[in-house]
Amino acid sequence: MARPKQTPPSITPVSTPEDPNLSQELADEMRVRDAIVEAVLSQKLPPGTRLVETPLCEAFGVNRSLLRRALVRLANEKVVELQHNRGASVAQPSQTEMHEVFEVRRLIEGSLMRRLCACAKPGDITGLRRLVQDEAQAYHQGDRSRWLRLSGEYHLAAARVLGNEELQEIMNALVARTSLMKALYDAPGRSVCSFEEHDAILDAIAAGDAERACRLMDEHLQSAERKLRRDPPSTDVDLLQLFGAAR
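Predicted structure:
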């Protein structure tokens, strides 16, 4: 019997479905979750920012029980960290953790490039090109949340071409982790995951040049890791002011 697939972690804000049977509490929980995710993606909540319950409850108009459920959801997605007797704070992955996650991605995606060069169809390349175009458009429009999502989706879509569900599940988790790292540590105005590099990798895949595709992907991921800002930003954030309009 095939085991059920788990929903992979994601830092993408989601819209609550228009379901009349959906409880108001769950809708409010997702509203809180999405607002915090969006603040992280837009770098309004720097790494290490304490998420103090009182101003957050007041800003969102929710009780502590609901807020804590939203924070637990975010902790499962590794967006926040929960510590006993210290509450919640925005995640701050260590340099070692970031290096290890990017290293795993380089190992996996190098092999992925070889497989794609052997089996990718013209339609697969066309679909990936559209993603790169959308990614560039979002970046130039200053839509950081959409740009980060599309930047990660490029890598996920490449993995889906092979039709390997286990690979897709692993890539979903890894891309979610690195997308969060980019959201937290990318210096403003710096393109960490370059759409120009994505396009060059596609050129190599379309030409069936496995060695070049592997080299470009490795350089691409190493470059993304190097460009992450290491200096700790200020964590003094007025949560009531930041989220007061979210109600």
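Summary: Confidence is low (pLDDT under 50) at residues 1-8.
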